[in-house]
Design a protein that fits this description.
Strand order of the largest sheet: 5-9-3-16-13-14-15
Structural class: alpha+beta
Strand content: 25-35%
Distance between the termini: 35 Å
Radius of gyration: 27 Å
Helix content: 10-25%
Length: about 775
């Protein structure tokens, strides 16, 4: 992937390009703005990093979970005797063995620990077994005799409104009727579209795993790759019938996550079995179990009608958005709020009538996956913008330029965009970026690999057409609609070494590296260690939507500044000046007049300083009955230009290049930022072309990585970051914005636009099927 086109625009507004930006980053050895290497990078590359699946304890037992073979059924009886009587089996647990709350959930407590009377999705947990060998545990789980009365599954979300309720709370989770402006207004030009977004799996690098160890006080310690350990602890304790302090969750070996590990997947069966047997119990899910056990991106049906005047200026947007939540609520209400609020995209729309629904079905569970809600509507509203440009005979970029949002404009929710919104600048950057060269005529040899499908599937090279498409998108940062966002951090300095304690989980987003950089920047101490996360520390919340860069990074900064004051006060008092007149840079403390000059190491010698601080952003409010309200703390934007080659006879697509311009607020770690953008774009390309978890009448077909084709290195396009706009968000710590979600949101829409340009087909479904990429005759 190319990074030679990276540009960074500092607060002053003059872009730093290519070598200049790289040279500036190289000059900063540590602190903010440096490409500091992650502390665990070498261990991960060498294969010595201890993941959750590597956990071990003396005398441990192995767990296995029995899952439902039906998407919807009534449980008539469960006979665990065949499993319990097998040699080596130590315990079998079902819903009858849950001593506390029978159900749990992060937003709505509607999901049972084990199915009690009814199973509501394929793969729902029924029972769990602990045995002295993993094969014995699996065989014992399979031996449990369950008698089912199979019920007709509700798998069409459109029919869920009238279908028999699959849950005591009903099938409707939430309805948001957003009304903005005058509903009766119409435009001179009207275009309509129907769009479908498929079920994308987060596909974590490693399947879910964990180890539970019983405690002498009757509680349990759970070691697992959690992204929100305190919520896991509280939910698990409630199910176990224990006080929260009797359950400890220790985060260990997160093998990368896109906020997909927010489910109580292994924690409940592990804890119950460990307490029942009095022994450590380990569970390592298979890839199939991983596909069935965690939440996926919401499959979405979207109907749109765009109104515009004859000059291409938007007049009104009408939309109906239907999210398939699967069997339980999870984060569906939050995803729906994002989808409805951003349904018109980063464009100025004076009137809007948008209805959104999230419904329960007997399909696999849906939940938080990077860019939830925003990604689905982006594909739809950008399809509408292309359709509107074609109807008006206008260049698609020019149409977008006439409508783009800027700081001070209003969302259809009535909220004023107060953060930097350089949408026009981003779009100009990708439009003006040089295009990649066309393939050579008569491509052969290595160049055959550059054709769609490769040398064996390229068909006739003369049937390959190039398409160029553009897309704009936005995401919100942090939680929304009144979520109390808060994080706590402690910074301690003991001589030349600093330590950070914060329960923000490192999932690959780079928080542990950022925490080190913050302390280096504020205190001038180069050696900084970040303590492993567990629930004995104050909570920091989940790792979604750029939270830890903002709230946890902000807490670390505040704590470090408090320590800085402790360090500088004695020196300032000695020289009769305030601490504000002293600066720390390059490991030295100097006064404004040069009278004081000493090293940080000398000032810290023999001292132990520490401070604890919290960061809590300004509050938000829930959307009201008409979808109005200041629901979001801040927004981030991106523009992407996709270049694709399409074999218009076979329908095969190769993404040649993705040119990205992004609103980042401030670059804190250039290397990490590029990696996050490249990863987000690649995940978006997967959603556009290949990633779709196939489900037939509620049953997951082939839940494995053979039938679920993730993009590989051969599929990843050349990703060129053509501009990074550093216009700092004044309400955010360091002014930085969320980085990784918005490329995921925009990439699928850009690829779809490019395929439309190459084929002349509407391309209204993701992932794009081959028949949709065959050109009209």
């Amino acid at each position: 992937m190319s990074s030679d086109a990276v540009t960074a625009t500092p607060a002053g507004g003059v872009p730093l390009t290519g070598a200049a930006a790289g040279a500036e980053a190289e000059q900063a050895r540590y602190g903010l703005g440096a490409s500091l290497q992650p502390a665990d990078a070498l261990a991960k590359v060498q294969g010595t990093f201890p993941y959750a699946a590597d956990l071990w304890a003396e005398g441990l037992l192995w767990a296995a979970v029995l899952r439902s073979p039906h998407p919807h059924a009534r449980i008539v009886s469960i006979d665990t005797a065949p499993a319990a009587e097998m040699p080596g089996v130590r315990a079998v647990v079902t819903h009858e063995d849950v001593p506390g709350d029978a159900t749990h959930g992060r937003r709505v407590a509607d999901r049972p620990a084990f199915a009690r009377d009814t199973v509501r999705h394929y793969g729902e947990p029924i029972a769990a077994v602990a045995a002295d060998h993993p094969d014995t545990a699996r065989l014992a789980a399979a031996a449990i005799a369950v008698e089912y009365e199979v019920l007709e599954p509700v798998t069409d979300p459109e029919k869920a409104f009238e279908a028999e309720p699959i849950h005591p709370d009903g099938n409707l989770i939430r309805h948001i009727p957003l009304r903005y402006g005058d509903e009766s207004v119409t435009g001179e030009v009207v275009v309509e579209g129907l769009y479908r977004i498929g079920r994308q799996d987060p596909a974590p690098i490693g399947a879910e795993a964990g180890l539970a160890v019983p405690r002498t006080d009757g509680g349990v310690e759970i070691y697992t790759a959690s992204t929100d350990p305190h919520t896991d602890r509280d939910l698990a304790a409630a199910c176990f019938g224990l006080r929260p302090e009797q359950v400890k969750v220790v985060v260990t070996g997160v093998p990368g996550a896109t906020a997909d590990r927010e489910d109580l997947s292994v924690q409940l069966p592990l804890g119950l079995l460990a307490m029942r047997t009095g022994c450590p119990v380990k569970l390592a899910a298979t890839r199939e179990e991983s596909f069935l056990g965690h939440a996926h991106r919401h499959p979405t049906l979207l109907r749109y009608r765009h109104h515009a005047d004859s000059e291409g200026r938007l007049v009104k947007v009408e939309a109906q958005i239907l999210l398939d939540a699967g069997a339980y609520a999870d984060d569906s209400a939050d995803a729906l709020a994002a989808a409805v609020s951003f349904a018109a995209g980063p464009y100025v729309v004076p009137h809007a009538a948008i209805d959104g629904w999230a419904v329960r079905t007997n399909n696999p569970p849906s939940g938080h996956v990077r860019g939830e809600g925003a990604m689905q509507v982006c594909a739809a509203y950008e399809g509408q913008m292309d359709k509107l440009a074609a109807r008006l005979g206008m260049d698609p970029v020019e149409l977008r330029m006439r409508n783009v949002m800027a700081t001070g404009d209003l969302l259809p929710t009535g909220q004023t965009v107060t953060c930097p919104a350089p949408v026009a600048e981003l779009l100009r950057a990708v439009r003006e970026a040089p295009l990649p060269p066309l393939p050579a005529d008569g491509a052969s040899g290595p160049e055959e690999w550059l054709l769609p499908g490769g040398p064996e599937g390229a068909g006739d090279p003369g049937a390959v057409r190039r398409g160029i498409g553009f897309a704009l998108g936005m995401v919100h940062m942090l939680g929304a609609e009144g979520t109390d966002e808060v994080s706590t951090a402690t910074v301690k300095v003991d001589g030349p070494v600093a330590t950070v304690m914060c329960a923000a989980v490192e999932t690959g987003q780079g928080f542990s590296t950022l925490a080190r950089q913050i302390v280096q920047e504020v205190l001038g101490v180069e050696e900084v260690h970040v303590v492993a996360v567990d629930t004995d520390q104050p909570p920091a919340g989940p790792g979604a939507r750029g939270r830890h860069t903002w709230v946890s990074g902000g807490a670390v900064e505040r704590a470090a500044k408090m320590v800085r004051t402790q360090l500088l006060q004695p020196l300032a008092a000695k020289f009769g000046m305030s601490t504000e007149l002293l600066t720390i840079a390059d490991g030295k403390i100097t006064s404004y007049d040069g009278v004081l000059s000493t090293t940080v190491a000398e000032a810290l010698e023999g001292k132990e300083l520490w401070a604890t601080a919290q960061c809590r952003p300004h509050p938000t409010e829930p959307l009201d009955d008409t979808g109005q309200g200041d629901a979001f703390v801040s927004l981030a934007f991106a523009a992407i230009r996709a270049v694709v080659d399409v074999d218009v006879e076979l329908g095969t697509v190769r993404v040649v290049e993705m040119a990205v311009a992004q609103d980042v607020g401030r670059v804190l770690n250039p290397q990490q930022l590029r990696a996050r953008i490249e990863a987000g774009v690649t995940q978006g390309v997967g959603a556009a072309l290949t990633e779709h978890l196939r489900v037939s009448r509620g049953v997951v077909r082939h839940p494995d990585l053979t039938a679920y084709p993730l993009p590989t290195a051969l599929d990843a396009p050349d990703i060129r970051i053509v501009r990074l706009v550093e216009e700092r968000d004044v309400v955010a710590p360091f002014g930085a914005k969320s980085v990784s979600a918005v490329p995921v949101v925009v990439s699928p829409a850009a690829v779809a636009a490019a395929v439309r340009a190459a084929t002349g087909r509407p391309v209204n479904r993701l992932p794009i099927r081959p028949q949709a990429a065959v050109a009209n005759p």
